[in-house]
Amino acid sequence: TKFVIACVLSGLPESIIAAACARSGQRVLHVDSRNYYGGNWASFSFSGLLSWIKENQQKTGISDECEDWRKLILENEDVISLSKKGKTIQHVEDFCFGDQDSAEDVEEAGALPKLPVFGASGAEGVAQDSEKESPPLESALPEAESWEPEKATGTEPASAREGNDTEITSERESSHSTALGESALELGKTEAAPSEISAQEPKKITYSQIVREGRRFNIDLVSKLLYSRGLLIDLLIKSNVSRYAEFKNATRILAFREGKVEQVPCSRADVFNSRQLTMVEKRMLMKFLTFCLDYEQHPDEYQDYENSTFAQFLRTRKLTPSLQHFVLYSIAMVSETHCSTLEGLQATKKFLQCLGRYGNTPFLFPLYGQGEIPQCFCRMCAVFGGIYCLRHSVRCLVVDKGSGRCKAIVDQFGQRISANYFIVEDSYLSESVCANVCYRQISRAVLITDQSVLNTDSEQQVSILMVPPVDVGKPAVCIIELCSSTMTCMKDTYLVHLTCPSTKTAREDLEPVVQKLFNLNTEKETGNEELERPGVLWAVYFNMRDSSGIDKNSYDGLPSNVYVCSGPDSALGNDCAVKQAETIFQEMFPTEEFCPPPPNPEDIIYDEDEIAPEESGFSNSPETKPEPPTEESSSTAVKKEDNE
């Protein structure tokens, strides 16, 4: 069988490309040597993450199941060997700070009653057919304020009060009352009831409880948020992949200044109601933010500082030190030393434009973790005929000596699979191919804590915090704190992600920040200051390769029909992955639309010749398949493997 597209590994860019190709009618084969979807974009249950940690600490190799595959190579063919073991994760260190009361004898509890479309990593199968999807929210949620004067009274839906989940629709369809299965992006409806704040200590959580409730954790390898007007949200809406996921608003943006964590006002009303700013500061801030919204129209105000850093430019704008701090770390969210003036203005404008679409902050978070997003696109690909094979590694690319094009791949069983185009994730390329590539690294840490970094009336907060560099030469650290209503951690705990560009090992980069914000002494006998800080129950540090922004010509000897996708980058959003996927798709199929919406089953007109095979279940045309039956018939292709 010859395929048009063969994708190796199921990260976010590869999954988007596979979905786009399948939607345009191409035959797609998607293989992954791992037993889970997403690669370095995946999410794990707690036990799944422990297995992942053990695997990356041991660095065991993968043995060939078939040593004879080279016999399949003809005389007029060359091979490009692929790596059997990814080397994108380094310096993995995990620590337990809680009571490990006989946790070795504790087993993870059974599956949760209901899982999302592909569930958390380690869950089985596709959760529910689209026929069983929840009905849409009846009415648009209350509108949030916009920084743009002309859009302040727009008709776009926005989030309700803090902690509520939201429905997303495209602006063009806001007048159509679209249902969830048609063009709406539903954000989970689980409304978090506000909890009562007490002066008592947080409930003590033991390690055995974490292990027992391990399936309630969905721990991302890469920590990101979705900008409400970002490329990924637009793609989810346009392609109708939005129906496969649920999202929650990021409820607050925090700042760390003078040793304290405080909430940053985001909306216009928040700014004027804030007690942190004086009236003069409020006017100064509003004037500067208004300028940032249309800074391109006033080049005379910034062109003299284009070669300066954004921090230096802010000092010339007559902003107080506290306002400079808020703009730099809580609005633009950029580095003080490495961000130019133009980059800072662009980041500030993007932040302001995203305000008010779905809530008082610009960000959304996918319920059950970032690992859901690649799986959503994998499901779309499978719906339109894509074939998926997990635990199926590829040994090499077969290249024709005459044309220089790649003809096929050879898998672990010695099977030769032909295709026209090949998509390969960077981690699969051998060292000889990547000899001239210079990689960056990302430092990551994941903490399980017993309380929030900033306690408020509601425990169900999704927070983002940029911590300034703790020392000269150190990068700023992005912290995302998730509550249990995001379906990423058990009740009475928080999941905290720390990310920054690497300068050393992840632990060396991030532990100073952890020590400033959290209490590593679980006995809590060191005074009131320790009592106020959240206690860390468990932590893991690791470095991840950042292969974004590498030109294809940097790889040695790759044929023209082999395209390389990068792993996760250190940016907060997902724009890099979406841009890369669209660029590769357009290079392969320049006349095709990228991820168009699927047809509605009720709008499909069948020809008489197609009715008979359709009723017999043998039609392979994605344009003539009602989606629910197709998902049911192809669910085996996208079913998650149960390794527990």
Question: How is this structure best described in words?
Answer:
The structure is a single chain. This protein is an alpha+beta fold and 644 residues long. Among the domains are: 5-59 and 66-85 and 368-438 and 548-588, FAD/NAD(P)-binding domain (3-Layer(bba) Sandwich); 267-354, Orthogonal Bundle (Guanine Nucleotide Dissociation Inhibitor, domain 1). The protein has 15 helices and 23 strands. It has helices at residues 12-23, 46-58, 207-212, 231-239, 268-273, 279-293, 310-315, 321-331, 341-354, 372-383, 506-517, 528-532, 575-588, 608-616, 627-634; strands at residues 2-8, 28-32, 43-44, 77-81, 89-96, 167-169, 184-186, 219-220, 226-227, 247-249, 252-257, 260-263, 363-366, 387-390, 394-400, 406-411, 416-425, 440-449, 463-467, 477-482, 494-501, 536-546, 562-565. The strands form five sheets. Strands 1, 2, 4, 14, 15, 16, 17 and 23 form an eight-stranded mixed beta sheet that branches. An eight-stranded mixed beta sheet has the order 5-22-18-21-20-19-11-12, sandwiched between helices. Strand 15 and strand 16 form a beta hairpin. The longest helix has 15 residues, at 279-293. The chain starts with a strand and ends in a 10-residue tail after the last helix. The relative contact order is 0.20. Residues 111-146, 148-164, 170-199 and 610-644 have low confidence and may be disordered.
